[in-house]
Amino acid sequence: MNTTTNNGAKQYFEQIYQRPVILEAKKLTQVFQHGKTQRTVLNQLDLKIHKREFICVIGPSGCGKSTFSRVVAGLDPYHSGELLVDGQPIIGPSPERGMVFQGYTLFPWKTVKENVMFGPLMKGASHASAEAHAREWINIIGLEKYENQYPHQLSGGMKQRVAIARALVNQPKILLMDEPFGALDPHTRQKMQKHLMDLWQNIDITIIFVTHDMDEAILLADRIVALKANPGEIKEIIEVDLPRPRSAELMLTPEFKRLREHVDALVHAQEEELDPALEELPKIPRMTQVSTHK
Ligand SMILES: Nc1ncnc2c1ncn2[C@@H]1O[C@H](COP(=O)(O)OP(=O)(O)O)[C@@H](O)[C@H]1O
Ligand SMILES: [Mg+2]
């Protein structure tokens, strides 16, 4: 990478750090009871996320990524420490933190439009105003032709777009996404990544995106928070100094590959530690006479 790009990146991150902190974790700790023993899943996490940042949270399976997103969503109470949005403690779910989770489904008995209208109606908007807002967001995500369809009539990618619209219609400060594209095929997933980057660049939103896909994290993030397990702590925060707008072709560049190797080493080192059986996978005895594989 040449010096100009490096200087550009330095300036980009300096600007980010000057923005107000929107989410702050101070010694955030989560403990689960397993029978008679207690298990610390998040251990004294300290983290500051700035307004309009795109943060990806990665780490090996079971390291506490979803535990983190659930406490930020306000779905689970945390054990100790502090967790603040705009300086105010999180005490439960709120439309100011929109959620798009892989398994967090739409209301199957409501149409696309009714799903998106749900938030504004809950906040006391009139039917006409809720409908107008819902339409606006359905247009932004490009599903106007589907507004009267039910979730079962939509593809996986469309459902997640509706889920995004349903969250954004409430004008949240933070959009919290936990493996939102995990169930999509690679092509749809790539399109959704691009769609999400477009949305983020054009609206005032801070995104916290949990994924175990390292390419996805590098493609999307300003900063990657790499968690480690046992107990969940921040292993490293990586500034992704790649230019925007980004597209899938970026993955072929040496700069991307360099970051990928770095992130791989961080996460894989721990995967084997967490599952030692991976290192001892047995050699399969030959049980066939077919000779295509020598
Ligand atoms: N409600 C719960 N009760 C007890 N243990 C839990 C609960 N939720 C998560 N855990 C445990 O916490 C650890 C982290 O889980 P999770 O946050 O889902 O990991 P990740 O999303 O990184 O794969 C796992 O060992 C999991 O079994
Ligand atoms: Mg998870």
Automatic annotation (TrEMBL):
Belongs to the ABC transporter superfamily. It comes from Acinetobacter tandoii DSM 14970 = CIP 107469. Residues 23-254 form the ABC transporter domain. PROSITE patterns: ABC_TRANSPORTER_1, ABC_TRANSPORTER_2. One of its GO terms (molecular function) is ATP binding. Keywords: ATP-binding, Nucleotide-binding, Transport. This is NitT/TauT family transport system ATP-binding protein. The lineage of its organism: Bacteria, Pseudomonadati, Pseudomonadota, Gammaproteobacteria, Moraxellales. CDD domains: ABC_NrtD_SsuB_transporters. InterPro entries: AAA+_ATPase, ABC_transporter-like_ATP-bd, ABC_transporter-like_CS, ABC_transporter_ATP-bind, P-loop_NTPase. It holds the Pfam family ABC_tran.
